[in-house]
Write a structure and sequence with these properties.
221 residues, alpha/beta, Nucleotidyltransferase, domain 5, 2 domains, five-stranded mixed sheet, 6 helices, 28% helix, globular
Length: 221
């Protein structure tokens, strides 16, 4: 199965190709570069392995939530490729992609994935490891970090740009109930490589039925 994955829901942008025998990836944090980098990167990855877009078996993409402009760029490119080459699309939650990027070995039993939603808000999802699988507890959420409420007691590990951007607020709201990243820690971003590993956890859809997840009526850039 030859899969191409595109992740563009945050300031980070990445493209990954799985040929079935190896995975290669391009990645950068550059808020304004998504539109000009995604297709050239995809072409480069295919060219390096002697493949073409027509030889792909499927496309994998983050469906959001995330920044409106960057999210739309990724989805539009995937939709165009899917239509041009008659490919199925596997849309995955960007919060689940973030969780997978932060904990690919599923070593953190309780995890809170946080993306910066701007306007003083975060996109959030709580996850538990159950029998080796990551399970989301409740619905994906949008709101002020002050209004977050843990679904169950425990030591929750926070990950993602939202955890870094709102570190002080989260500490004030939860204290020692959650584990926050160090002030000088590198930010964990959702990655196209993690997208590839999650493709089989969702159902395929056609290009015409790709739907972005915003979580708010007033979208962010």
């Amino acid at each position: 199965m030859i899969s191409l994955a595109i992740e563009s829901t945050t300031e980070s942008c990445s493209v990954a190709l799985d040929t079935g025998s190896e995975i290669s990836e391009r990645w950068v944090v550059q808020p304004q570069g998504h539109a000009r980098m995604i297709l050239p990167w995809a072409s480069e990855l295919l060219s390096e392995t002697g493949l073409s877009f027509g030889q792909l078996d499927r496309l994998v993409v983050s469906r959001g939530p995330g920044g409106f402009t960057s999210l739309r760029i990724g989805l539009s490119i995937v939709q165009g490729l899917a239509l041009a080459h008659d490919l199925p699309v596997y849309p995955v939650s960007s919060l689940e992609v973030l969780a997978e990027s932060a904990d690919p070995e599923r070593q953190r039993p309780l995890l809170l994935a946080l993306l910066d939603a701007r306007m003083g808000e975060v996109y959030a999802a709580w996850y538990r490891i159950d029998d080796g699988k990551r399970i989301r507890i409740g619905a994906e959420w949008l709101g002020s970090p002050d209004d977050l409420s843990a679904p169950e007691a425990g030591s929750w590990q926070t990950v993602g740009p939202g955890a870094v951007a709102f570190r002080d607020q989260l500490h004030a709201a939860f204290g020692s109930e959650i584990i926050l990243p160090a002030k000088d820690a590198d930010i964990t971003w959702p990655s196209a490589h993690a997208l590839l590993t999650l493709a089989d956890t969702v159902d395929a859809t056609s290009a015409e039925k790709i739907t972005p997840t915003y979580l708010r009526d007033q979208v962010t850039g």
